[in-house]
Design goal:
Two copies of one chain form a homodimer. The first copy, chain A, has about 425 residues and is an alpha+beta fold. The first copy, chain A, has a domain at about 255-430: v583 fold. Chain A has 13 helices and 17 strands. Chain A has a five-stranded mixed β-sheet with strand order 4-7-6-1-8. In chain A, helix 1 (about 10-35) runs antiparallel to helix 9. Chain A is globular, with a radius of gyration of 21 Å. The termini of chain A are close together. The interface of A and B includes residues 198, 209, 232 and 366 of A.
């Protein structure tokens, strides 16, 4: 590990340690460059089977680090069962469970398929996927067109009809509209929204409004005339419609930033309701995990902590590219969820700068005189300072009737970061 | 005038002075209440002839305090001539000038007809007007559907075709859409935009995006299918599309707040490029004027101060209800036009609190822990402190080819405020 050289080290060892430090700094600088320089384009919408790498008809993806079916959080199991029914892989929930027990229906993390999913993240073959592309590296990433039911474990005929409608009506309109515009530049788009009250994790009101403003003229041209109003209404109803776009964009950046040898920067931060997982650019495909934490939240009427699933979802991918908690000073209205004064929220944003390897170029903070948001979480800095990037998140119920029971703030545990630092130290010694 | 009582005043005079002070405070509190409590609804669009009180076919309205045709700023004259040609009142610019010289074509301030107009403000009988209504007082106010050419003195067949299109295509769609929604609540709408980077004078990006987001589903239902895309495109092209809505809303509030005896609060702040005019709630229909100031601006390529019309337009009506400069801490991005740091912009906003009789309830400043924006400019406080509410504004050219030559910051002169205080003192002594 990158211990500072000490006076009583032999000279050659001091040189080596210092050399390793320089290598890490150079590697992290390259990772930060990959996180902050490329533009990402929204190129279209298609069903997962057609576009998601490795997707097949019996595969269901979920959020967070890898977990066995039996250990999965109940709400995530329920979403997976819902997807199995939606895809007509099973006749009943019991049938689905049996096939999942035996591996006849397969499951895998979204993250292993260039995909991210909010909350339970459940994604299956015939769902409509937003497709984004990293302009510099050419890699693509994917996220479901935002829906608000199955991701919270709810499944019934209405939910399935909505998934059909997203695929058959909204998806083609978005696909046609972005193609008519030659592709929508998501980093630029996100940077605008960041100056308009969004931090683009828990709050995407401006990003969604700007999105519909840009796409609406083309949607009116490409969609069937009798569908235009209902498509536009989707973007009026759902403040978080943009979350899928920005999550996919963040995944397209982090995938391209992954695999830089000697880098200690986080390229994935994901939760499955049981564990929080971290991946590090220089540490290959290994996930470092710790227990998913309870959310310090505000609950809806009739709900309390006993109804809550612990921290869940891939959405914290946006924190790894300088959004969400890394931009919370821009979203004092959303910050109100966490209580406290404006100055406290701004201070939280400053604090996160202590664990970042760099600053964003595109994402800036007006109230801090347009300083770039902290970007590239360095696991060494997290362990050294004890600062973990808190996440603003929705809370999923943990039993029927499922659904969203609240929203709040959660700090990922230190364990995955400590484990990553240890693994890094070991890899250096080898 | 409200001099503080002095020890050596006779007791009855002290009592009277103190009584006058209390009367002024009570009157100003009522004016502030009228500025901050009512909701204002966007109820529809119609041509000026049908809805603007006192409008007739030979009348052309203009921005700012009253001014004779011959003294009018050249750019405002040019706009009036454009309107005369558009309305087919004249065959040529020369013919229009002759009829304006002789009074055959009449002119009047927008403000005298429950109307406000941006820049030259020129408004004539067949133009499409946004109609808003004060929910508490029932009075209506009006502003042109935003166009960007005639208001800067440009008139030609394209400009006239655009005015036709606004009246025949955009107007009916807006009218149908807001009616389908039961009327759009503009104070609520504006308060949202204020938390999204707008101060709703120089910057209306969020307000416009939120507007199209809300109205688009209904526009798609009520407009002819082949027109939906071009209508939605209007709101994508024009960041300031919302300015007309918020100006009309401010006029609906200030008209209802006008005429409260003993009040020293400003109910109109308007400029015509030659003079700045102020009206005060307790001082009847009199305008107090001073010279329009040069704008400290950033100019477009090829333009400089020698090409600029001095401060012009009714848009400063929004400053009188707690928007624009009164909310600039919310719009640090727009504030960048004026240069300086974030803290300086926030400080400017704080400074304006010294001249305000109250605080807004709906318009708040997140970075100041959601304090209400300063609302209700008290002419006494302006004179006492020397603080004039600076205005962010566009700059109109002063010769052909006319148009917008830049944008900048301008401080109205102190003269109108001093004149108003003197008039108030005189009225008290009578």
């Amino acid at each position: 590990m990158n211990d500072p050289p000490e006076e009583n080290d032999p000279p050659e060892e001091r040189a080596m340690t210092s050399d390793i430090g320089a290598q890490i700094e150079a590697a992290n600088a390259e990772v930060v460059r990959r996180l902050v320089e490329p533009e990402v384009t929204f190129v279209g919408v298609d069903v997962a089977l057609n576009v998601v790498p490795g997707m097949h008809e019996r595969l269901i993806l979920y959020s967070g680090p890898p977990i066995e079916w039996k250990r999965m959080a109940p709400v995530q199991q329920e979403s997976v069962i819902g997807a199995a029914l939606y895809e007509k892989l099973a006749d009943s929930p019991e049938d689905a469970r049996t096939q999942l027990d035996t591996g006849k229906i397969e499951i895998a993390p979204c993250h292993h398929h260039a995909t991210v999913g909010a909350m339970t993240g459940v994604t299956s073959a015939s769902m409509a996927m937003l497709i984004v592309e990293n302009d510099e590296f050419g890699n693509r990433a994917f996220c479901k067109v935002v829906e608000r039911e199955l991701q919270f474990g709810i499944h019934n005929e209405d939910v399935f009809a909505n998934l059909d409608w997203l695929r058959d009506v909204v998806g083609p309109a978005l696909d046609g509209a972005t193609n008519a515009l030659g592709g929508l530049k998501l980093i630029h788009h996100t940077s605008q929204a960041l100056h308009m009250g969004d931090e683009c994790h828990n709050r995407n009101v401006a990003a969604t409004a700007l999105l519909v403003r840009k796409l609406a003229p083309s949607i009116a041209n490409v969609a069937p005339a009798d569908k235009v109003s209902e498509i536009l209404d989707y973007f009026d109803r759902i403040d978080q419609a943009y979350l899928g776009f920005v999550m996919a964009a963040a995944k397209a950046l982090t995938d391209a930033a992954h695999g830089v040898e000697m880098s200690t920067v986080v390229t994935a931060l994901a939760r499955n309701g049981v564990e929080v997982g971290v991946r590090v650019s220089g540490l290959g495909d290994q996930w470092f995990t710790g227990p998913a934490q309870d959310i310090d939240g505000a609950y809806g009427p009739g709900y309390g902590p006993e109804d809550a699933t612990a921290d869940i979802g891939d959405s914290a991918i946006v924190e790894t590219v300088g959004l969400g908690a890394m931009a919370v000073a821009n979203a004092l209205t959303a910050g109100a969820i966490a209580g406290g004064t404006a100055e406290e929220a701004i201070q939280k944003n400053r604090t996160n700068m202590e664990i970042a390897a760099g600053r964003s170029r595109s994402f800036t903070i007006p109230v801090l005189d347009f300083e770039g948001t902290p970007t590239g979480i360095d696991v060494r800095a997290v362990v050294r300072t004890g600062i973990v990037p808190y996440v603003l998140t929705g809370i999923a119920g943990n039993k029927a009737p499922w659904g969203r029971v609240g929203a709040g703030v959660v700090h990922p545990p230190l364990e995955p970061f400590i484990a990553a630092v240890k693994a890094f130290a070991t890899s250096i010694k080898e």
